């Protein structure tokens, strides 16, 4: 009897030790990591986005008031700069940028693609711009893109279309709505939310660490599943490629936008600001747990392959045309992103003890 009790006690102790060793270390200062993200990545990203959106609004107002080729070209440049800035902010879709009542997160309200051109044209015909409904595919940055870019680069067609007062009104309303949404988020981060974010340093669901991590992974997966997978026909229910469903279809900026988004994901991994200044990121967090350095090596090895694969995609023709004529380079990017998913998602979640709180719908 004593022998049995002894064996049972030893087994219990062994299990307890194993469990303790596999749990993330509490020695890591998550508040310092959150402070780095808030101060050097998140607030600057939203501030830059706000600056570029303000420029976009000015360019829009000028174009609406004086519909000239020069003003259209200025507007197109302003849109590209604002949408590029958005790539560095769209992973922070929580807190003031998260869902609020019937309103979805900022990424759905201003970043939904592909857009519904039929809805947009219907709203223009009826001179109706209601941005509090569920028609998120008829507003945001990609609705602006549809309005100001011609698929064949024919700006004369765009100028002709804007002889309609309704079209001018709708464009101005869409841009004003983007500005309002972004201003709200910036105001909150400049207010009390900044300290709330840093102080909520646990790892439970709803903590800042959990929200940051989950939106980081979700943002990465949005590249794989939607920016790359959707036009390639890789999503559930698709039976063939759908090239017109690329992001930034009308401007032809698809490849550039994906590249900026990949850089933004890399910055979050390293805790690095847009200027390359390194801080405390998820890499440092992993260094504090058992098995973390091994995962870091695997992650960075595969990430290098992802980036090399991206760089090997031809700049021309535009991605929507490559999917039809030569899909292999773009398809390879999807393959390498798919391989990378386990490192960012299941492996990292397990080591850090942070639950995945969303479903990507693709079985990963």
TrEMBL record:
Keyword tags: Signal
Lineage: superkingdom: Bacteria
Keyword Signal: yes
Keyword Signal: yes
Pfam families per the UniProt record, alphabetical: Peptidase_M75
Gene3D superfamilies associated with the record: M75 peptidase, HXXE motif (1.20.1420.20)
Major location (coarse): other
Location(s) in or outside the cell: Cell envelope
Domain Imelysin-like: 44-323
GO cellular component: cell envelope
Protein name (database record): Imelysin
Originating organism: Raineya orbicola
